[in-house]
Amino acid sequence: MNLTTFAKEAVTDFRTVGAVAPSSRYLIQAMVRPLPLKRARVVVEMGPGTGAMTHALLKLIPFDATLLAFEINPRFSRYLRSNISDPRLVVINASAETLQKEVRGRGHDSVDAVVSSLALGLMHDRQRRNLLGGLASLLGETGVLTQYQYLHRLQIERGQVRKFDLARLLHRYFSSVQQRVIWRNLPPAFVFTCCKTGVTRKQTFTT
């Protein structure tokens, strides 16, 4: 699926896609580096789109790990199933709000890492709270969540466009929330690294 096709899908269904182009390699690097992937058993990806971050995760997780990819867009779900044949990947065509049900229904009590490309600013407040509450309860004590947000920080609330303070929201659910800006992306984005214990992996790379 090329950039033109991705853009067409974004225009058709922007609320579920939430982006105008696939993530750059710089954003992907910033999203996966903080995650404890070497010994991970269960990893969750939310909003994989055409699989740019999915490929990076599969290169880093153990051979016996499981990657649960939640993609609500049916076209992207079909694309992932058709183009990534790795048996560790489980594509779930469902809303991220069903996270707890889907994860526990597959026999997992917790997850080790979560990478989220969801456009949280386009969700209703109730959806965001349900999602983040579910994540906080599933993430293990040494687990890490990474979430990005475009630099404009906009949200749609009651039909109006407003600034969205994602850092403040994340602090309600995680004791440690670190952020950095990735300029080499379209558009530039903040990357948030969140955990429950107050200790996150040191990031030594540059973008």
Summarize this structure as a short list of keywords or feature phrases:
two-stranded antiparallel sheet, 7-stranded mixed sheet, disordered C terminus, 8 helices, alpha/beta, Rossmann fold, single chain, globular, 207 residues
Write structural notes for this entry:
This protein is 33% helix and 26% strand. The protein contains eight helices and nine strands. The chain has a seven-stranded mixed beta sheet, sandwiched between helices. Strands 6-7 form a two-stranded antiparallel sheet. Helix 3 crosses helix 4 (52-60).
CATH topology: Rossmann fold
Q: Class, according to the CATH hierarchy?
A: Alpha Beta
**Regions with little confidence, pLDDT below 50 for 5+ residues:** 6-18, 200-207
Radius of gyration over C-alpha positions, nearest whole angstrom: 16 Å
CATH architecture: 3-Layer(aba) Sandwich
Distance between the termini: 26 Å
Counting DSSP E segments of at least 2 residues, the number of strands comes to 9
Number of domains: 1
Structural class: alpha/beta
Strand count, sense and barrel status of the largest sheet are:
7 strands, mixed
Beta-strand content bin: 25-35%
Q: What coarse outline follows from CA principal-axis ratios? A: globular
CATH superfamily: Vaccinia Virus protein VP39
Q: Order of SSEs, N→C?
A: HHHEHEHEHEHEEEHEE
- Number of distinct helices: 8
Residue share in helix: 25-40%
Mean pLDDT across every amino acid position? 86
Strand neighbour order, sheet with most strands: 3-2-1-4-5-9-8
